[in-house]
Amino acid sequence: MRMPAATDTRSWTPDDVWALPDDGNRYECIDGVLLVTPAAVSEHQRFIEQLFLNLAPQVRTRALGELRCLAADIRLHPGNLVQPDLFVAAPAADGRLVRDWSEITSLRLAVEVLSPSTARYDRGLKRRYYQRALVEEYWIVDLEARLVERWRPDDERPEILSQTLTWQPSGADEPLVVDLEALFKDVLGE
């Protein structure tokens, strides 16, 4: 079977994506465009794991929502399907835990780690989608440049962070602080 690619001219839906074979790739569709991502390289996974470990205690104790770093089919708008590398879903109004990905209707944070095959979409199509979906913050991690591009819904340009990342989601009393220099050194084995 031919591998679908982002250059296909058909308009893809979540149902089309779910009908694809389980071949180890990650499939997403935004505005009818199919995005195919191969398995992440070690440094990519290590960064997501370490960022998760940095954020988890603070997200949990401050009840900021649910932090996840697993493939999850998130549909913030009908006809679209994304799988951020890491995300924080806003807490449910009644405080209960999410039982099905379809219950997630908003994100406080979405994080994507760039790779050569995803950079164009992470910085373009996905960024515009996350902004349109009013995701509070979208972080694009560039491991090679050792920086994070922070986008908010109304931003025309990203905030470029390379030393410290301070995140204060709505409802948080205090900001969460991530030492990016230390994180990049740890992840890249320096």
Describe this structure in words.
The chain is of the alpha+beta class and 190 residues long. It has a domain at 43-64 and 84-187: tt1808, chain A (Alpha-Beta Complex), CATH 3.90.1570.10. Helices cover 24% and strands 24% of the residues. The strands form three sheets. Strands 3-4-5-6-7-8 form a six-stranded mixed β-sheet, sandwiched between helices. Strands 1-2 form a two-stranded antiparallel sheet. The chain has a two-stranded antiparallel ribbon with strand order 9-10. It is globular, with a radius of gyration of 16 Å. The chain starts with 13 loop residues before the first helix and ends with a helix. Mean pLDDT is 88; it is low at 1-6.
